[in-house]
Amino acid sequence: MIYFLLIIGFIIDGVIVLGLMTLFTKMKKTEELELRQKEVAAEIEDLFSSYLLELKEENKRLEGKLVQPVKTETAFREHETANVREDYHPPEPMETEVLYRPSRSFQVISRYNSGVPIERIAKELNIGKTEAQLILKFQEKN
Question: Where are the transmembrane segments (predicted)?
Answer without folding.
Answer: 6-24
